[in-house]
Amino acid sequence: NLVTVSRLQRNPTVKTEIGMRGFEGSIPVGFFTYPISQAADITAFRATTVPAGEDQKPMIEQATEIVRRFNHIYGDTLVEPSIMLPNNAACLRLPGIDGKAKMSKSLGNCIYLSETAEEMAKKVKVMYTDPEHLSVNDPGHVEGNVVFTYLDAFCTDDHFARYWPDYANLDELKAHYMRGGLGDVKCKKFLEKVLNEALEPIRARRLEWQKDIPAIYEVLRKGSEAAREVAADTLADVRRAMKINYFEDADLIAEQAARFAKGE
Q: Which CATH number describes the domain made up of 117-200?
């Protein structure tokens, strides 16, 4: 076997999500083994690079382990993947708007690319900040403050020039917030403008595609066909390496035919 139960149990991402989802008492098999399914998705298409967040590093490492073990046993067949992480450290793992470790659809703490400006504004408004920053004059903390984490990830000096010229850059804004005299509401309003600027082209593109749903399905159909062809080729290579390609192994068929022709 290429993967053991104990190895899955040691996966940090799996361990974290088991705690987040309250699965300590009883872990669904599908959830527990999804690192294997993810490895299959990656290797099926011979992926060399996987763009992902920092929390997915253990998953890619496990996929690489599976590939190396398979290749060691059956010969060089599968491609080892590597992870491609964002250059901006703040983007390595964006927290949920509630301050929890990561965005999660099931936890309801996400900002979706499909959301309107109004929907996004409501989420920015309730973002987790500094619980000790009770009044404008209180000094605030930027570490662990989701608003500033997102500003680290998305804002540039140009955003300040356009939307908040009182500050030249994020460092100046942070310094003011940390010494006191700056409220969370103003910071959230600025973040809202920054995020809207990033998401507006995506919204516009989505609205254009929504006008032709059949075209979307055609793109998906063609992509699925192409993906199935690549995955089928990989699976054929895997079967050949494992010598379980019974219906395609001409030598095996000839050997069996000769054997039974002799009455063995």
A: 1.10.240.10
d(CA 181, CA 207): 41
Residue 128 contacts residue 149 (beta carbons within 8 Å): no
- Per-residue pLDDT of 178-231, as tens digits, reads 999 999 999 999 999 999 999 999 999 999 999 999 999 999 999 999 999 999
Mean pLDDT within 167-174:
98
How far, in Å, are 28, 81, 149 from residue 68 at the CA level? Answer: 27, 10, 37
Domain ranges of the chain: 1-85, 117-200
Architecture of domain 1-85 in CATH?
3-Layer(aba) Sandwich (3.40)
pTM for this prediction? 0.79
CB 94 within 8 A of CB 88: no
Question: How many other CB atoms are found less than 10 A from the CB of residue 159?
Answer: 20
